[in-house]
From TrEMBL:
InterPro entries: HTH-type_LysR_regulators, LysR_HTH_N, LysR_subst-bd, WH-like_DNA-bd_sf, WH_DNA-bd_sf. The keyword Oxidoreductase does not apply. Residues 12-69 form the HTH lysR-type domain. Pfam families: HTH_1, LysR_substrate. Keywords: DNA-binding, Transcription, Transcription regulation. This is LysR family transcriptional regulator. Belongs to the LysR transcriptional regulatory family. Gene3D superfamilies: 3.40.190.290, Winged helix-like DNA-binding domain superfamily/Winged helix DNA-binding domain.
Amino acid sequence: MRTSRSSPLSRLALRQISLIAAIDDNGSLKRAAEMIGMSQPRATKSLQEAEELVERKLFHRTNRGLLPTAAGECVIRNAKTMLAQLGKMEQELDGMAGGNWSRLRVGTIMGAVPFVTEVIQRHLQRFPQTSFEIIEDTSAELLRQLDRGLLDLAIGRSSVSSTPQLYNVTTFHDELLAVVANPAHPLVGRKRVQLEELADSRWIVYTASMPMRISLEHEYRNAGLPFPSALLETRSALATMSLIQGNPNTVALLSSDVATFFVNFGMACTLPMHLRSKSDPYEVITRRSYDLPEDAALFIEELVAGVARSSLSQSAAKLV
């Protein structure tokens, strides 16, 4: 249902919306007021007025600061979406002076980075005036940023969300997994490596509950082996490669696209292992409540078309 001009919500001021978002960022009314240049007494009154308009309490006062209520979470999410849209509008207006300018904010999980960056390069050849902001993180964090209007689209997996009905989802690329190791690892050069032979190696893994971590846990469970307890956990591809470079006895489970990227630069070697587990395919995820900009729609078309071209090329190579 649309909010009418007579609705109390229509009387929420932009300063109140900014204050609510700032409280969430700082956990403190005082720091939030300082951030937006408002006196603390005025901020206290402004928050009270906002809660009266919403007819719900937005924050609990605790010894850890102000924590949002369920209603507060809803208002914060929408407040940050509105502020992000205003920021995007300002950037677009500033860019109009330079001609046909546009800006795309793309979030991607680590495994899809090589493919996404390749599509970005093709997009820039067609639309050189496009400015890109690229955020790499987990699917869960990317969806949080998408919810708040900080991203135009995300490449990840909607299955990690408890509210998948909020999104438009297009499946576009299957993820294959590979185990990579330091080029000096003692098992490099073998024709076949079994999981139990990595007992003395240290795994670099994603944090718990992430799809790739779950896949590795499945491999150990299917092999009847205990999952290692001494791990190096990171979400960063750069940290993964730095750790592998620093110790010849380290291994990591990566998407085959990322693994190929690092192998081609001589930074790692792929171990010949047969992995039974398969990750969920990559998805392009957008918000259903958000009108997708034309440049974002074009980018998604290129992303899906790029997968089709890649599949055709691989099929042709197999026939040669």
